[in-house]
Design goal:
CATH class of the largest domain: Alpha Beta
Number of domains: 2
CATH architecture of the largest domain: 3-Layer(aba) Sandwich
Number of strands: 9
CATH topology of the largest domain: Rossmann fold
Helix content: 25-40%
Shape: globular
Strand content: 15-25%
Structural class: alpha/beta
Radius of gyration: 20 Å
Distance between the termini: 14 Å
CATH superfamily of the largest domain: PH0156-like domains
């Protein structure tokens, strides 16, 4: 597997969705332990883990090391590595991760003898921006000799590049918009009831939508309530009690094989991997 696709994702929800698309198109989980992982990647990841020595420097709980893939899939001669970047405002981390892979083939590096063909794919939410605005931000970050285009593979500067922005209409949009468009057909009553339950139980005052700190008996100022994420979560509890949205996205039959195969969005995304 000399064709390596590196996927930069805002979070685990993106990874769950993209992995599901690839599974349906014949990709399988790459289960090898790091000591026998595809060379020289396994040794690179092990060296990163060896540096993670002091737990006091890390937060407890789910705290992924962004330089180590969350999920690895393969098909034929292609290995796909998904990285959870922990949000979209992570330009520094994305640059460091990109450099890590590019340096595997630097002349002075011990790994330069490996003939690896890298493709780099970036996935973002539009949030409140247009697709073009998000693409322009990535262009400035990468500073390639040619500009990235949405949903098109660009072969330039010795690598392949691609980007997809989850959007809904001309301005704005999120991954959850795509997910709900796939989940609601054939499940209309469930999602109508879910939306009605959430809308009739919005927590007030609004500070209750943020983190509560029991020792200080105060709330922080950042609202954590996201309506569309909550809809997916509440509906998903009917199948996977207590599970996070990433599990629901990956394993729920609210999104079936035919839903993905017949989705223009999913088919466009799949073209980036082919």
């Amino acid at each position: 597997m000399d064709n390596i696709t590196i996927v930069f994702c805002e979070g685990q929800h993106d990874i769950a969705f993209l992995s599901k698309i690839l599974y349906i198109h014949g990709y399988k989980e790459y289960k090898k332990k790091l000591k026998v992982f595809k060379e020289p990647l396994g040794e690179q990841y092990l060296s990163i883990l060896r540096e993670e020595k002091n737990i006091s420097e890390k937060k407890l709980g789910f705290n992924p090391i962004y330089k180590i893939p969350s999920v690895a899939l393969y098909k034929d001669n292609e290995l796909v590595l998904f990285h959870n970047m922990g949000g979209d405002g992570k330009a520094t981390e994305r640059k460091e991760l990109l450099s890590m892979y590019q340096n595997l083939q630097a002349e002075e590096d011990d790994f330069s003898s490996f003939n690896l063909n890298f493709k780099f794919l970036y996935f973002f939410d539009a949030d409140t921006s247009t697709v073009d605005q998000r693409i322009n931000e990535l262009d400035q970050e990468l500073a390639l000799s040619k500009n990235i285009e949405h949903n098109i593979i660009l072969n330039v500067d010795s690598y392949s590049w691609g980007c997809y922005v989850f959007h809904k209409g001309a301005v704005g949009g999120y991954l959850e918009d795509i997910l709900l468009d796939l989940m609601k057909p054939d499940n209309e009553e469930i999602f109508q009831n879910t939306e009605a339950f959430i809308s009739s139980n919005i927590l007030t005052p609004i500070e209750r939508q943020s983190e509560y700190k029991p020792f200080d008996n105060i709330y922080n100022n950042k609202c954590k309530f996201k309506n569309k994420k909550s809809i997916i979560s509440v509906a998903g509890q009917l199948q996977f009690s207590g599970m996070a949205n990433a599990v629901i996205i990956a394993k729920s039959d609210f999104i079936k094989k035919d839903d993905i195969l017949n989705s223009e969005v999913c088919n466009n995304i799949m073209k980036l991997f082919k």
